[in-house]
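are you around this afternoon, could really use another pair of eyes. what follows is a protein written twice so to speak, once as letters and once as structure tokens for the fold. i want to understand how the tokens follow from the sequence so walk me through it. anything you notice is useful, everything is just below.
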Amino acid sequence: MSGLFLAGDVYLDRYDETGNPTGLIGPLNATQLQVNTPSEAKDRESKRKDSYGQALDSVTLSKAAEVTVVFDDQPAEMLAMALMAEMQSVSQGAGSVTDTLITLPKGNRWVTLPHENLAEVGLASKLAVDDSPVAPAALEVNYADGLIRTVPGGALDTDTTTSIKLSYDYAAINKTHIKGGIQPRIRARMILKGKNLVSGKPVNGEWPEVSLAPTQAVDLFASDYVSTTLAGKAILRAGETAPFYLDQHK
């Protein structure tokens, strides 16, 4: 006999809206994987004079198994689950813009350009009113984020908005776009590929379907690694004989 001290890799396969798997993500670093199998007692209590309040019969009924899992791996898929979000891939091909009209706010406030990842070489601007060139020193550009503003105390620092025609090149970008707060339910298959560090033998688990939801806020500015806490119920999926399975090798 030996104790159980578990290390393991966790994989998640999120089901789409029609219940079809979308593919396993992982291995994920789970800092907690907690399973609770609650039950409920149904008693038939005596009302007789000589045994009032005693149980004449008692039946224990199982309830839905509960799962809590905490991850500190944060690929886009996990962040989307934590934020009850949908994901989509967004690609910006490389290209160039010529004389696009930009209105610069007064007070040296930033304005967002149509593109990010701008090339520092080749950016040029001119006033929209008469096409006269604007000196580069009059503008501050955040090339990576695609932001532009007038420089405090510069030639375009006025009490009114200023319209310019801007030309620039931009590089390609590939990113995942997360649309948060629109998917209240997470349905997924969860797999554990583990090892008992005491015996050195495998311990594997499978939850064919779990219905999960985030239970804690995601602190994007946390002083430690951002973690995701998901909790919910293990579902008895059609065709399965149990809501979850564990295999401990002998």
Q: What stands out?
A: The chain has two domains: 6-37+61-88+178-248, 94-171. The first helix runs from residue 76 to 82.
